[in-house]
Amino acid sequence: MRSQIILFLFASLSSAASAQSLSGPVEGFIFDAPTESLRAVNGIAGSATFGPAVVSGVEYGSVAPNKNYAIAFEDGHCLFVSGLGSGHVSTAPLAGVFGQPDGAVWSSDGTVAILYSFSGNWIQTVAGMPKASRANTYRNLSVLGGSLSAVAADLDGQQIAIAVHGPKGGVYLTKLNQEFIPLVEMENPIALSFSENGTNLYALDGAALKLTAITISDFASQVLSLTGLRDPIAILAGHDTANQPVVFVASGTDRLACVYNLASQKIETTIRLGFQPTGLQDLGPNSFVIGSRSKLGDPLWLFSTAPRPAVYFVRSEEHTSELQSLTNL
């Protein structure tokens, strides 16, 4: 499959003030680790720029998908942040959170977040957002005999899946804080994603380099081949431009972004990347963060699914906007 790289260069913005005065659509909000802040990605796929920090001094943060609120940690304290992009951002203490997590995943509707710690081997659900945020009891996962490697939630967060790495590794499901139900044995599960309607769960096997599709109603499973990928690291279930169910796959050292068609059980689109992807994280209605920033000067890489699959970057700090779009022929 051939690919073509189209490079667009945009004119430099004259000053920081002019950069901050830009108005227009907001693609989404992110936690930006190098600046320790929550900030907007302004514009749309192909012409996006970084906005200024809206909440600073944040050690970690996670924004609800397609929402204007987030969970953040400042000086070790958990905060619920609301009003992002409104000009009236507010923060409130969120009591009962066990500790600072390594990450968080959200239900698609943004009402539930699951905080997780790989190092501490625990998860904790924060529910009732945005109006009545509350932290539920944290759950230590050491009883499962392995170490936490991935977490996923369905549409409303009523179903939570976890992956456990180790000799007794596998994928587990819990509903409404009930006991964990084993779904499938897998020594090295590294990523999970629910289908958009919550009827299926997809698990990425880092040892076999295969995708397992699990039907939630009867726990039946099917193994799907990811032929051509040497280092798949992340998956995210969604739909393509024809509204057909697909699984987006990021592959690390071979630097690929793929669209896996579930009906044909084949990779239908492959995009070669000029960087190593870090994962797949929801940003806007049709975009994901596929390459996060680790230091100042790094670009933020975004994967857009409409009008066709493409990968582009947004550069910060310098007051310029540069766009690189990689599309398939």
Q: How would you describe this protein?
A:
- By secondary structure, the protein is mainly β.
- The protein is built from 1 helix and 30 strands.
- Strands 9, 10, 11, 12 and 13 form a 5-stranded antiparallel sheet that branches. A 4-stranded antiparallel sheet has the order 5-6-7-8, with no helix packed on it.
Q: TL;DR of this structure?
A:
The protein has 1 helix and 30 strands. The chain is mainly β and 329 residues long.
Attribute tags:
329 residues; mainly beta; five-stranded antiparallel sheet; four-stranded antiparallel sheet; 1 helix; globular
Low-confidence residue ranges: 1-22, 318-329
Helicity level, as a percent range?
under 10%
Distance between the termini: 8 Å
- The radius of gyration computed from the alpha-carbon positions, rounded to a whole number of angstroms, is 19 Å
Structural class: mainly beta
Q: How many helical elements? A: 1
**Strand segment tally:** 30
Main sheet overview: 5 strands, antiparallel
Strand fraction equals: over 45%
